[in-house]
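Lesson 9: reading folded outputs for more than one chain in a single document. The general rule is that every protein is listed as its sequence immediately followed by its structure tokens, and records are never interleaved. Here is the first one.
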Amino acid sequence: MEQVIDVAVVGGGPTGLLLACELALASVKVRVFERREEPVRESRALTMHPRSLEVLALRGLESRALERGRPLPTGHFGLLDTRLDFSGLDTTFRYTLFLPQAITEALLAEHARKLGVDLLRGHVVEALSQDEEGVELTGSAQGARFRCRARYVVGADGARSAVRQLAGIGFPGTETTRTSMLGDVTLEHPPATPFLALTNARGNAVLVPLGNGMHRAIVTDAEREHTPLREPLSLDELRASLTRVAGSDFGMREPRWLSRFGDESRLAEHYRQERVFLAGDAAHMHYPAGGQGLNVGLQDAMNLGWKLAAVLREGAQETLLDTYHQERHPVGRALLSNTQAQSALMGFTPEVLALRELMNGLLRLPAVNRQLAEQLGGLDVAYPQAPVPAPASGVLPGWTGRRLPDWTLRLADGDPCSLYAALHAGRWLWLHTRHAAAPASGWEPMPGWKPRLEVLTLEAFADTSPLHGVDGLLVRPDGHVAWAWAAVR
């Protein structure tokens, strides 16, 4: 008899691996199919943003990333000269972490193996069909055919997603209008500043140190911006363009990776089609402004993971899975708007250069700078519609869907407790003071749904506490509030 697994994840990058870890944490049988036979050496993404670090911290995974990465206290919006300041953000992680994608992927793969995730490399999915009971995948692996049946399938297989295409999910958007160049190279005469970014009438250029003597050079050359993506990039072309824009090639040599990329932007029409889901770049494709793609993908995975686990292991109704599209599709739409705005600011016409000067001034206003820093860092995302019914009375407005930072809580016995530490097991969390009773044994947010739940009794909150006036707080496994409640005294 054919074995049916719970979830098949297609794509073994950071998004697919984090999703697999979330599912395995809840004892969901998950298998990952990755077309590459070996882990990737190149790192398209280089930074992890504050919310992504919070996502890791929600499961106790942040320490390894922090050991391998380098904190950067500022970020950029559209390569503007005025930097985004992360120092005042409401998070433990007031910085972006310079951490190449290859390292992020390796750390998540190691954690997935510890959780017993079945990661199959060299497996190419070629066909997909679904019915009322599940999804069947077929494909090839090292010249042999394979077949897998799963109750659900998640496509985390990148912007050219086979799962999305096989499922017939539309991917509307805009075609490439401008291309840029990328090279991981050795610089014999690197710039004096560690991070070089400049824009002028000839184009823009960014130089970022990667370590081990390597730099990443990203160049958009006004004379070469309409070069087709399919045209291979040579070291000579990259060197000439960098010289034209920056006045020097900084002794560029020994390329390890050369690539050309464009500003094509697309958003999947649906993140869910019956038993098939999309996450990460399979759901949203955009110009890589601000390094947001990997980060939004990790946050997609965190949102979808606990919902699939609730349906498969806790008896939640399948309607819960509809909230994945309802909550994450608007985030994808905002991502495209954000990156398109940045792409426009990275132009070279006199009008755009004038706009850049205006924006440089606006970013010196603390409120404007903070708003864009929160957007880039993923800290502004909220889900105002609760996925579980709230009590008939006592619910406090303004709390539902809020993202919670890692507050230090004071338990009723006086001991301190980290909020995120209480969420490491991926369970729901009910925080309550003595004024509000804990949920009764066998609490069900919906009939038949018996969620995994942690309960903590806290001391009454002082006037200075962010929880002042709150007696009960139901926190989702992804660190967002389901609802807050005040007892009648």
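And here is the second record, again sequence then tokens.
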Amino acid sequence: MSKIHLIPHKVDKVYESAADIPEGVKMIQAPDIWKKADKGKGNVVAVIDTGCQTDHPNLKERIIDGKNFTSDYGGDEKNYDDNNGHGTHVSGTVSAYSAPQDGIAGVAPEASLLVVKVLTGEGSGEYQWIIDGINYAVNWEGPNGEKTRAISMSLGGPEDVPELYEAIKKAIDAGIPVICAAGNSGDDRANTDEYAFPGSYNEVVQVGATDFKRTIAPFSNTNDEIDLVAPGVNILSTYKDGKYAKLSGTSMATPHVSGALALIINIAEEQFERRLTQTELYAQLVRRTVPLGYPKSAEGNGLVALAILEKFEQLFDVYTKPYGNV
């Protein structure tokens, strides 16, 4: 059996410092619902990746726990630090918070991170590591009874491994949405299919990538299991060594959706006054998308637009108000 790898991605530029709400976070309208969603507070997102820089100034207070399943650091389970950069970048898009003097904000800057290191510094890992990492995230319980509410995976391989599929189904059965990168093997044609696993499993939320002009990225995989798209070109986020970087790939689109779910959970569960199922959370996510005009094989349900329901409500309110005294 071959190894599983990071979804190939491009490091566009590394920065010593940054102070901004990244364009991708703004593009999916996250800041517009931060107040209503309490910035995702109380929700734990498991990032299954290369680890995370645990002392990064924009991340260290969001890391609730973690575990290393790889051979890195002599197999020390307690050392889940990121020796690649990819996991730190993904984590920042989910829930980075601005430090007092510097830094950026993620999609859900009050959500907590469960760091699950399943890939080495070279960006590859055994399938068993990923399977064990998924099971760990599903069974994990925090010091105050916290549970994983979403799993984010920007990794993939060409093989449909039955044991990996079973682990995914366990997560879904536990009510945890699993968000996966579609892959970067696209040929800029919507009528040809490219598949990577676990992204291509029907049960997961498979995420394709757009640029800031709402154009589908030419590298983004297309297939009949694409669920939606999010920004994935020149994405600014946290990076290793306390730095920041702009990266491109469906790997970068995926954590936008993972963070979005942390926000949606707080809004929807307050409305319903109960914990929602995985299916219900997926429906709430899809409600907050807008079509871009591409085939479903490229964009699925469309681009994440978190404030779209509120904008419709405001519009409806305008047209239903009475006109003065009649």
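What the second record shows: The longest helix spans residues 250-272.
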